[in-house]
Amino acid sequence: MSSGDRSETDLLLRDIRDLLLPIADHYRDEYEERLAVRLRAKTARVLELVSRPKRRAAWDLIDGLRTQREISRESTLDEGSTSKLFKALRELGAIVDTPNPVKTLEID
Protein backbone atom coordinates (compact mmCIF):
# COMPACT_ATOMS: atom_id res chain seq x y z
CA MET A 1 0.00 0.00 0.00
CA SER A 2 1.48 3.33 -1.02
CA SER A 3 1.57 6.32 1.32
CA GLY A 4 -1.08 8.04 -0.84
CA ASP A 5 -3.44 5.09 -0.40
CA ARG A 6 -2.70 5.04 3.30
CA SER A 7 -3.51 8.73 3.76
CA GLU A 8 -6.76 8.32 1.79
CA THR A 9 -7.69 5.37 3.99
CA ASP A 10 -6.85 7.37 7.12
CA LEU A 11 -9.03 10.25 5.94
CA LEU A 12 -11.90 7.92 5.13
CA LEU A 13 -11.66 6.24 8.53
CA ARG A 14 -11.64 9.63 10.26
CA ASP A 15 -14.74 10.67 8.32
CA ILE A 16 -16.51 7.46 9.32
CA ARG A 17 -15.51 7.97 12.95
CA ASP A 18 -16.76 11.55 12.89
CA LEU A 19 -20.10 10.39 11.47
CA LEU A 20 -20.47 7.74 14.18
CA LEU A 21 -19.69 10.01 17.15
CA PRO A 22 -23.21 11.53 17.41
CA ILE A 23 -24.73 8.06 17.34
CA ALA A 24 -22.34 6.86 20.02
CA ASP A 25 -23.12 9.91 22.16
CA HIS A 26 -26.86 9.32 21.78
CA TYR A 27 -26.68 5.71 23.03
CA ARG A 28 -23.84 6.14 25.54
CA ASP A 29 -26.02 6.17 28.69
CA GLU A 30 -27.92 3.03 27.66
CA TYR A 31 -24.70 1.30 26.70
CA GLU A 32 -22.99 2.18 29.97
CA GLU A 33 -26.03 0.95 31.92
CA ARG A 34 -25.91 -2.40 30.06
CA LEU A 35 -22.21 -2.66 30.88
CA ALA A 36 -22.95 -1.93 34.54
CA VAL A 37 -25.68 -4.59 34.61
CA ARG A 38 -23.28 -7.14 33.10
CA LEU A 39 -20.57 -6.20 35.60
CA ARG A 40 -22.98 -6.56 38.53
CA ALA A 41 -24.07 -9.98 37.24
CA LYS A 42 -20.46 -11.11 36.80
CA THR A 43 -19.54 -9.85 40.27
CA ALA A 44 -22.53 -11.65 41.80
CA ARG A 45 -21.53 -14.89 40.08
CA VAL A 46 -17.93 -14.58 41.29
CA LEU A 47 -19.13 -13.86 44.84
CA GLU A 48 -21.27 -16.99 44.61
CA LEU A 49 -18.32 -19.06 43.36
CA VAL A 50 -16.02 -17.89 46.17
CA SER A 51 -18.61 -17.96 48.96
CA ARG A 52 -16.93 -20.86 50.79
CA PRO A 53 -13.89 -20.01 52.97
CA LYS A 54 -11.31 -22.11 51.10
CA ARG A 55 -12.50 -20.84 47.72
CA ARG A 56 -12.40 -17.25 49.03
CA ALA A 57 -8.88 -17.86 50.29
CA ALA A 58 -7.91 -19.08 46.82
CA TRP A 59 -9.49 -15.99 45.24
CA ASP A 60 -7.66 -13.70 47.66
CA LEU A 61 -4.33 -15.34 46.74
CA ILE A 62 -4.70 -14.60 43.02
CA ASP A 63 -2.11 -11.89 42.48
CA GLY A 64 -0.23 -12.80 39.32
CA LEU A 65 2.74 -14.00 41.37
CA ARG A 66 1.51 -17.46 42.37
CA THR A 67 0.72 -20.43 40.16
CA GLN A 68 -2.61 -22.20 40.42
CA ARG A 69 -0.87 -25.06 42.25
CA GLU A 70 0.67 -22.68 44.79
CA ILE A 71 -2.70 -21.03 45.34
CA SER A 72 -4.26 -24.46 45.87
CA ARG A 73 -1.66 -25.40 48.45
CA GLU A 74 -1.78 -22.08 50.32
CA SER A 75 -5.57 -21.95 50.40
CA THR A 76 -5.79 -25.65 51.40
CA LEU A 77 -8.31 -26.16 48.57
CA ASP A 78 -7.58 -29.49 46.83
CA GLU A 79 -6.15 -29.23 43.32
CA GLY A 80 -9.27 -30.65 41.63
CA SER A 81 -11.53 -28.09 43.29
CA THR A 82 -9.06 -25.33 42.52
CA SER A 83 -8.96 -26.38 38.89
CA LYS A 84 -12.78 -26.34 38.64
CA LEU A 85 -12.96 -22.95 40.39
CA PHE A 86 -10.34 -21.41 38.13
CA LYS A 87 -12.01 -22.82 35.02
CA ALA A 88 -15.30 -21.20 36.04
CA LEU A 89 -13.52 -17.91 36.81
CA ARG A 90 -11.75 -17.97 33.42
CA GLU A 91 -15.05 -18.64 31.62
CA LEU A 92 -16.58 -15.63 33.39
CA GLY A 93 -13.59 -13.49 32.44
CA ALA A 94 -12.82 -12.86 36.13
CA ILE A 95 -9.24 -14.08 35.72
CA VAL A 96 -6.81 -14.21 32.83
CA ASP A 97 -5.53 -17.61 31.79
CA THR A 98 -1.80 -17.23 32.32
CA PRO A 99 0.72 -19.44 34.15
CA ASN A 100 0.18 -17.20 37.17
CA PRO A 101 -3.53 -16.23 37.22
CA VAL A 102 -4.39 -12.52 37.29
CA LYS A 103 -7.74 -11.02 38.35
CA THR A 104 -9.65 -8.84 35.93
CA LEU A 105 -12.30 -8.06 38.53
CA GLU A 106 -12.22 -6.94 42.15
CA ILE A 107 -14.92 -7.93 44.60
CA ASP A 108 -15.69 -6.86 48.15
Characterize the structure shown.
It contains four helices and two strands. With 108 residues, the chain is mostly helical. It has one domain (3-103): Arc Repressor Mutant, subunit A, CATH 1.10.10. Strands 1-2 form a two-stranded antiparallel sheet. The protein is elongated and about 60 Å long. The mean pLDDT is 94.
Give the CATH class.
Mainly Alpha
Describe the oligomeric state of these chains in a short phrase.
Answer: single chain
Rounded to an integer, what's the Rg over CA atoms? 21 Å
Instruction: State which percent range the strand residues make up.
Output: under 5%
Placed side by side, the strands forming the largest sheet appear as 1-2
Give the overall average pLDDT: 94
> Poorly predicted ranges (pLDDT <50, ≥5 residues)?
none
Based on the coordinates given, report the CATH architecture: Orthogonal Bundle
Features:
single chain, 108 residues, mainly alpha, Arc Repressor Mutant, subunit A, two-stranded antiparallel sheet, 72% helix
What is the structure about, briefly put?
This protein is mainly alpha-helical and 108 residues long.
